[in-house]
UniProtKB/TrEMBL annotation, chain A:
The protein's name in its UniProt record: hydrogenase (acceptor)
Gene Ontology CC terms, in alphabetical order: [Ni-Fe] hydrogenase complex; cell envelope; ferredoxin hydrogenase complex; membrane
Intracellular or extracellular location(s): Cell envelope
EC numbers: 1.12.99.6
Assembly, per entry: Heterodimer of a large and a small subunit.
Binding locations of [4Fe-4S] cluster 1: 62, 65, 160, 194
UniProtKB/TrEMBL annotation, chain B:
Protein source organism: Rhodobium orientis
Keywords: Membrane, Transmembrane, Transmembrane helix
Superkingdom of the organism of origin: Bacteria
Segments passing through the bilayer: 14-36, 73-93, 113-132, 148-168, 174-193
InterPro entries found in the cross-reference section: NarG-like_sf
Protein name: Nitrate reductase
Length: 364, 219
């Protein structure tokens, strides 16, 4: 629970030097593409911020987002920051269960009214009276409405919470909804990805803590700092695309040489995320670097975009047989039309009578 | 509706509709012309018709000297945008993937900067031919709404493709959707307009060449 101490005090207690803290703040500020002066403001803001109460709601999700945010290879300052966030409710991470867990949620809501942040992962099923997913006897929709009512801001973490994700994939049997469709009166920040990059989550939360406002967002509600560039634009394999050098299969010479994966269905050109720059597992690698195309997991409907191995420019459905049927149909209709015209020609010829001079002289 | 939804629509059902109209329409018109046929020529042929017909299909691609001298700029522009169209449609990597999806065949692509250069050249050339059409009194008199319509449809396909590749004006996925839809409009217009000259041009040239050949006349 929040106890009134500021982040600065807590970090000092942990033996984190001011120098290390400033370095971390400038790292975060540069991640967020903020101007240099903002790094100092961020450090001051963060140091003064009280331990932020966070309520983490998990709905139709797979816990991959939590896995992502908790997996760090070495204890970093990010981990410390997360230590200093008061995670007051989180199914997977909290020790309490049952009624004690729900009591913790209500307590945090009452104690930090109007100030706490709600993090949501997973989509909310609203079909059939929202009964597809319930926690502690209430539906996910009820829990969301109840918790968000007095929140300062909502952070939808992961593609399911941001855009509906896999539960929302056709035919969407539970009528799964993204958080933004259900929360209209609070700022909702989407940090999409399946899962999202840990730095994107940490950086966004740090921004909210330090400046007390929502960072600049794109049209999908995602922080521009992390979702402003496409994977394609920042991809180290981009020069191969420009030169027209493509891997044609996952096992050919081009693939071994690390050529562009466009033809193998890489969705990098239509995907906005920071994978190509921040990378994963402490900057070790990202999917394209390991030889597989981008799936486009941070984009809406990435599950229904016509197959992971179909190039972006190609039609999403099977069109070969359709084209063949159209050509055959067109040919048949062409033959029919041609024959009709020929018949008309023959008929016209038969009906033709020669005009004689006598005919021309006829008066009536 | 978001740009991603529009892209899904453009790559999915809209493309299927456009492809069916294009493929069926073009085949219908070509087959119809062939089935109607021509009145048999009973006169004795002075020389073979086939060779003359085939060679005319190509020789008529070379402009007459007099015509070229009169307006070289416009004729060169015409070549540039037709060659540009061919290269962009058949030799750019993203488009080859469309061909692979339709026919199952694929072939090597040209480097992006080269395709890019030809696209810019084609856009400029299309503007030249449009200005010429509007300034030349005879051409202007002969031009109908359809001429401007097919010009606009072709031009938009070029322009939106260029803008999409370079992430200009709109985000890539939005511009890609607009580009695909503009091409779908072109495909739908194709069988009903002068765009059919892509195919009928060669039939007409062959016919002219073959007729001239029979008569022993140089075509």
């Amino acid at each position: 629970m929040s106890d009134g101490r500021t982040l600065g005090q807590l970090l000092a207690q942990r033996g984190v030097s001011r120098r290390a803290f400033l370095k971390y703040s400038s790292y975060l500020a540069s991640l967020m593409a903020l101007p240099p002066a903002a790094s100092r403001a961020m450090a001051e803001g963060l140091a003064k911020a009280p331990r932020q109460s966070v309520i983490w709601l998990s709905f139709q999700e797979c816990t991959g987002c939590t896995e992502s945010i908790t997996r760090a290879h070495s204890p970093t300052l990010e981990d410390l920051i997360f230590d200093f966030i008061s995670l007051d409710y989180h199914h997977t991470l909290q020790a309490a269960s049952g009624e004690a867990a729900e009591a913790a949620r209500h307590e945090a809501m009452a104690a930090n009214k109007g100030k706490y942040i709600v993090v949501v992962d997973g989509s909310v099923p609203v079909g059939a009276g929202a009964i597809y997913s319930t926690i502690a006897g209430i539906t996910n929709q009820q829990m969301l409405e109840e918790t968000v009512k007095d929140a300062f801001a909502v952070v939808a973490v992961g593609t399911c919470a941001a855009f509906g994700g896999i539960p929302h994939a056709r035919p969407n049997p539970t009528n799964a909804m993204p958080i933004r469709r259900l929360v209209k009166d609070k700022p909702v920040i989407n940090i999409s990805g399946c899962p999202p990059i840990p730095e994107a989550m940490a950086g966004t939360l740090a921004h909210v803590l330090a400046f007390g406002n929502v960072p600049e967002l794109d049209s999908h509600g995602r922080p521009l700092a992390f979702f402003g560039d496409s994977i394609h634009d920042r991809c180290y394999r981009r020069p191969f695309y420009d030169k027209g050098q493509f891997a044609e299969s996952f096992d050919d010479d081009g693939a071994r040489k690390g050529w562009c994966l466009y033809k193998l269905g890489c969705k990098g050109p239509v995907t906005y995320n920071a994978c190509a720059t921040l990378k994963w597992n402490g900057g070790v690698s990202f999917p394209i670097q390991s030889g597989h195309g981008c799936l486009g997991c941070s984009e809406p409907h990435f599950w229904d975009m016509g197959g992971f191995y179909k190039p972006v420019s190609a039609p999403s459905d099977e069109v070969g047989p359709l084209a063949a049927i159209a050509v055959a149909g067109g040919a048949a209709a062409g033959v029919a039309a041609g024959l009709v015209h020929r018949a008309a020609k023959v008929k016209a010829k038969a009906a033709h009578t020669t005009v004689t001079v006598d005919d021309l002289e006829k008066t009536s | 509706m978001t740009a991603v939804d529009l892209l899904a629509l453009a790559r999915g059902p809209l493309f299927q509709i456009a492809l069916v109209i294009f493929a069926a329409g073009v085949t219908l018109r070509i087959v119809e012309i062939l089935v109607i046929g021509r009145r048999p020529d009973y006169a004795e042929a002075r020389q073979g018709a086939v060779l003359s017909g085939v060679s005319t299909m190509f020789t008529r691609s070379i402009p007459r000297e007099g015509m070229f001298r009169r307006n070289p700029f416009v004729i060169v522009s015409g070549y540039i945008f037709h060659i540009g169209l061919f290269v962009v449609i058949f030799l750019s990597a993203p488009h080859i993937e469309v061909w692979r999806a339709i026919t199952g065949f694929a072939w090597p692509s040209l480097p992006t900067p080269l395709v890019d250069f030809l696209t810019v050249a084609s856009i400029a050339a299309m503007l030249v031919v449009l200005v010429n059409r509007m300034r030349d009194p005879v051409l202007r008199f002969l031009s109908t709404f359809q001429d401007y319509l097919v010009w606009a449809a072709t031009f938009l396909a070029f322009l939106t493709g260029y803008l999409a590749v370079h992430h200009m004006l709109l985000r890539y996925e939005a511009m890609l959707a607009v580009h695909i839809i503009s091409v779908e409009v072109l495909l739908v217009l194709f069988p009903f307009t002068k765009l059919m000259h892509t195919f009928t041009l060669f039939m007409a040239r062959y016919y002219t060449g073959a007729t001239f050949g029979r008569k022993g006349v140089e075509s």
